[in-house]
Amino acid sequence: MIAQRFLSADRRIAATILALLAAAIVVPLLNLAVSPQSAFYIPPYIVALVGKYLCYALLALALDLVWGYCGILSLGHGAFFALGGYAMGMYLMRQIGSRGVYGNPILPDFMVFLNYKELPWFWHGFDHFWFAVLMVLAVPGLLAFVFGWFAFRSRVTGVYLSIITQAMTYALLLAFFRNDMGFGGNNGLTDFKDILGFNVQADATRSALFAASAVTLALAVFVTAAIVRSKYGKLLMAVRDAESRTRFLGWRAENVKLFAFTVSAIMAGIAGALYVPQVGIINPGEFEPSNSIEVVIWTAVGGRGTIVGPIIGALLVNAGKSWFTGVLPEFWLFALGGLFVAVTLLLPKGIVGMWDGWRGKARALRAASLAAEAGADPQAPEPKIVRSAARTPGAWSTAGAEPQPAE
Amino acid sequence: MNKSNTILYLDGVSVSFDGFRAINNLSLVLDKGEMRAIIGPNGAGKTTMMDIVTGKTRPDEGEVFFDGQVDLTRHDEAEIAMMGIGRKFQKPTVFESHSVEDNLMLALKGPRSIFPALFHRRSATETRRIDDILGVIRLGDKRDEFAANLSHGQKQWLEIGMLLAQDPKLLLVDEPVAGMTDAETEETARLLKDIARDHSVVVVEHDMHFVRELGVKVTCLHEGSVLSEGTLDFVSADERVVEVYLGR
Predict the structure, then answer these.
(1) Where are the alpha helices (DSSP H) in A33-128?
(2) Measured between alpha carbons, how far is A174 from B216 in angstroms, rounded to an integer?
(3) Quick check: helix, strand or coil at residue B60?
(4) Which residues of chain B are at the A interface, by a Cβ-Cβ cutoff of 8 Å?
(5) What does pTM read for this prediction?
(6) CA–CA separation, B25 vs B99, rounded Å?
(7) Residue range A72-88, pLDDT digits in tens
(8) What number of other Cβ atoms are within 10 A of residue A316's Cβ?
(9) ipTM of model over 0.85
(10) How many angstroms separate the CA atoms of B42 and B114, rounded?
């Protein structure tokens, strides 16, 4: 039974990776190689929209690694996403060169407007793509490392940790709003022209960005699955379920959390970096605490503690958002709030968790009917055992989720 | 007093929480290889004493030495666990969403840092060690079962098994038979006596039948210090002990 369960979880992850890789090839083809009159043609705005959703899915997956598997409810993951986005945005700004409104070859428009005489020190190097990529990884990773170092070492957990992550993103929001920070203030960074020499507005570039997002998400699924399957992944869940037990076994729970938090922040940063060229702007609004909370909702809807869940959640909720804000724009936030309440009350394990529950029940019924046919078999699975089949190893379990005090 | 042959040495230890003296000038010595039962009414400081030994609580004053020379007040939980002190909690605490086997795998002695865990492949030695422990704690047929599905008593044994997997020199076992059936209690006594053959063990327990079953030296704590020490018969004949337990 256990082997079967592993297999089905493995198959689901493999299917997700394959689907993403297929999308990375098929969607650009249908956009570029098919004539606009064809029924199979995918218009560029859909490519850009779905590409954006894939970045959100990557962000939700990043949150799931810390929330679903380690119980760290971060309400500030949007900050890592935005920082990755700003690093990419700075590269794109430097690519504009003298084509800006003021035609200054070095200074971006907003700096000319704000009377900057020279480029601030932290803008140096962003004219190189490799440097920007390095910063996309390093800045969110470093912030998460330093933040986590202090928070986990001081054993800040639960709602207190959630609050300080929220405070972190809010502080960054206020900082990035300031004009003298040198990040474009309220307006942020926009009017991008080129990425790696290709026009960001061109259909081919958009398709390439879509493919890059899909491949990156597939890679992230693979890496997350590998992490979660490893002994370290088991330890991560052990820390979630009984932190003090891990300490008294000699593990340093703070380091376990710190590693996951840093990896997760880097994933969020990559998501932000892929997002910015596709939407064409990054501004301090991305640091809004409400953005981070929305990520939590996507993850909860899809199913925390599963790898596929947050991806499904992010895609579904955002597709719903696009549709809803077109039809009934005033009511979207109510719908989102209602969705979160409904999921919390009715689907505590999210869509994927519910699906597993159904499958487990169906299997139990089948086993029961088989046992009935075979007569009273003493080896027939007891209901207790069957119920556990609903839960993939490491899936969020209500029983194990409660913190267990050391006494 | 000579510490050289002791596994655990507490002298003049005191700790207060918000003015309440949970441990008051406590002195306790455990020889290498000894098994000791600690009894005492609620609030006597038994669990706090374990917290101090395992590094969860820092004493306000007093000396705490492990293995004759290691000052435990200078180390934290993870370091103390790595030195060879294993602790079982009062409430059985196992990793419920993992299989019994994985619970033991996480407890097995070995490197305790992130990267080795990330790239860990289980060796034949480790599998053998897990098999041995499953035999000792009598959970061999449950190895693939989720720990959440174990009975209360089985969880207690699994936790003891996790302690064994750590290969500690000293085991601190807090109320191992609370909530167990008589048959399970007997089995647990046998298990602990097995373990005590090559480990030093401190058992905190309320159940007097169980303590009698263990047949070891008994220390009775009261209001954070030692009230009486000796054989169970000696301690239970002590008038002060009777007074404390019956509330005069």
Answers:
(1) 44-70, 77-96, 109-113
(2) 66
(3) coil
(4) 47, 54, 56, 77-78, 81-82, 86-87, 89-91, 93-99, 102, 105-107, 112-114, 117-120, 144-146, 148-149, 162, 166, 174
(5) 0.90
(6) 43
(7) 999 999 999 999 999 99
(8) 16
(9) yes
(10) 39
